Amino acid sequence: MSFPIFILSFFKRIQIGNNKVLHDYSMFNICVDLYRTQFQNRWKHNQSSTKYIQPINSSSMKAPITTLIFDVDDTLYDVGTGFTAHRNTEGAQSFMVQCLNFPTMEMAKTIRDEYFVQYHSTAKALQEAEKDGRFPECAKRISPLLSSSSSSSSSKEKENENENGALFQAQDLAEWWASRLNFDLLGGKDEALIEMFQNCPLTLVAFSNGPRKYVKRVLVELGVAEFFPEERLFAVDDVLPYCKPEKEAFDKILTILKVRPEECVMVEDSMKNIRAAKALGMKTILVAGRTPTDNSMEAMKQSEATKAGDAPERNDPAVDVSVEICSDIPTQWPDLW
Asked: pLDDT tens-digit profile of 42-97?
């Protein structure tokens, strides 16, 4: 008997005689309970069969990791090699003296270090210092166009021949570093790093605040250049006037790569860049450097001194995974492999 029919029957029976009232009142309660239960079960079934589709950009959606983006300096090689200290001291200062006509190494160091704290890129630092009028009056551009057959200090002066009239040109710094730095400090090919890249199923990208020609030389010296073809190699030349950790620099390469931040892992030694990548929605891996030995302690201190305010912080909330050296990643985050 359905619920409405029983209601009619109930009131009809009340009119017939009081002897039926108690019996039918009990039946009334039973049917009400049955009807309520039936209604609730039917409502639950309808709710469970209804599909709720979240928007594609919802933060709760877990996008699969497709792309690993690697910084280069102090990330693909250990900070304890001393190469960064070499590059950021005599490498940068000698360029400023020889190619921008700074009068002393001391003045060059002061200007470079002041702006590097803010921009974490020698190229960006020099670009901004010149804009701010911090170059000496005697400054001029002397392009380091060395012949491939000579390692002498001869150079060809090209004063203000660039289109925008700026003295500093990123390609000049790239040429100077690529031809003048002591790459032996890197220690040659890194077999563990090569093996890691060979076994990685994800898309590999290099993104450095160094100039392109120099970055390519570092990749060659480490034996990993083949894993970063031109279309997946980004240097500061490619994103100026921006650089890491500026959002515009990240946005530009993500647009070129046609990937969302949620699909990427940023591998970095710089806390500034780690935090910027995390803010965009990337996962992050901090390369903090090997525990220093007696031999490497001084080199590490010198390297970190040239990157003031950017020492690694393993417990920072922006860090998802922390490793000592880059080739430790498969051990610390095996799901990526």
From this structure: 434 443 333 222 233 333 346 799 999 999 999 999 999 999 999 999 999 999 99
Burial state string for 68-87 with b = 16 or more CB within 10 A and e = fewer than 16: bbbbbbbbbbbbbbbbbbbb
pLDDT at 288: 95
Tokens of 139: 């400054």
Flag whether 60 is in a domain: no
CA distance 331 to 80: 21
> Is 198 within 8 Å of 189 (Cβ atoms)?
no
The CATH code of the domain that includes 256 is 3.40.50.1000
pLDDT digits (tens, 9 = 90+) for 277-295: 999 999 999 999 998 665 5
Chunked mean pLDDT (size 10), the chain, 337 residues: 45 44 46 49 39 31 87 96 95 97 98 92 97 97 62 43 77 96 98 98 97 98 98 96 97 98 97 97 96 62 60 94 97 92
SS3 234: strand
Q: Report the distance separating Cα 223 and Cα 167, nearest Å.
A: 34
The token pair at 103 is 């009068």
Note whether 310 and 201 are same-domain residues.
Answer: yes
Give the domain extent around 140: 88-180
Residues 121 and 228 reside in one and the same domain: no
Percentages helix, strand, coil for the chain, rounded to the nearest 5?
55, 5, 40
Whether residues 75 and 16 share a domain: the answer is: no
Helix spans in the chain (H): 3-16, 21-48, 83-86, 92-100, 105-119, 122-131, 170-180, 191-198, 212-222, 236-239, 247-257, 271-280, 294-305, 329-332
- 22 and 125 within one domain: no
Backbone angles phi, psi at 74, to 5 degrees: 65, 10
Tokens 């730095």 map to which residue?
181
Do 31 and 97 fall within a single domain?
no
